[in-house]
What does this fold into?
Amino acid sequence: MNKPFQITRRSFLSRCTAVAAATGLPFWFVERELAAVAADAVPGPTSANDRPGIALVGCGGMGRGDAQNASRFGDIVAVCDVDSSHADAAAQQFTKNGKTPDKFSDFRKVMEREDVHIIVQATPDHWHTLVNLAAIKAKKDIYGEKPLTLTIDEGKHMVKAVRDNGVVFQTGTQQRSDRRFRLACELVRNGRIGKLKQVNVFVPAGLREGPFKPVPVPPELNWDFWQGQARAVDYLKERCHSTFRWWFDYSGGPVTDWGAHHNDIARWGIGQDGPETVEARVVTGPIPGGYETPSEFEAALTWAGGVTQVVRTTLDDTPFGGVVKEKGQRNGVKFEGTDGWIWVNRGDLAASDEQMLFTPLPDNAIKLEVSGDHMGNFFNCVRSRKDPIAKVENGHRSAVVGHLIVIALRQGRKFQWSAEKELFVGEGAEDGNAHAAREMRKPYDYSFIA
It folds into this structure.
């Protein structure tokens, strides 16, 4: 009989030292993180036959990347997309040992498969909810791309469905599993910068192009199915695939793209469910006949306890996160308090005083959830049946921040919000609540998955 593997204290400390040196993060933080990850680990598959079957729904570049990540823990047995060229590419990518995943164009057929245990969902935003709800109904566990939903109302449906059916759901806001972001939020939550006063969120500006002209629908694309619940319009190649998010029919522009990540971190650091007020203004509007979402905007939100959050676009990064201006304003989150500031993004962690980062927190400090691998955390929870780090409530509440900003932008007014009731309140509440949901074009409404 093989003895269980055990790591010695010496080798553990050696690993902590190596990780701290490689990341530039404080040893005390890395040591606690690795200890927490080890303590929460659940044994993985013991044989090739013990790997869960995974289906990818939404086979664009992000979807194939997510599925590649998930294939460390299971086998891709099915792929689904309304664009057959995307499904073909995914099937070819995940052919293994001569076995090619089955291809589908209707995700409802995927949910009928008994050999599918996990759904990796990476469709455009307007399809997130129906695909996720169909998977939940079929008792599949789900890794779902951000933002969780297209509307506030859809998020309420999602939270209820996940809890009523006992499935494991991980939102693809992977910055929650990034050491830099967790350290920044943990320090802020423990008063390292004094009393938190303002959170500045910078997101890359969106695309501003147009006007566009209709062209024939590619033969490999089911355009009506792709549009789904959105209004039916003529096909524009700019409405589809990698540029869908610059149209209000399918997404919300910069604030539901990068904003879905950075507003999640802002909310994590603030430590509250939602803001009390929101207002927003367009800085640079769209070109008539072109992309609909404003490329540049500014929003201000107030939170309980006197915290202000300001969300701004920056032209110094590309919409996809690349650098345009080397010395310019990077996308990221800056927490400002009475005693200093902390800045964090995917490549950098800085503070007004370096000792803010390297001085250990006390043993009784607030400790945030730990995950060192977002996809790994999801599969770990599939086995343990615990909630993952970006559970459905986290995905919903953080997505709501973006939805509130979109509503304020489109309505051109200030709103009051009750995070407890999940409703607009006070002056203008009726107008705000009227935009918490959108009419869903038949047959692509909730009855489509009944």
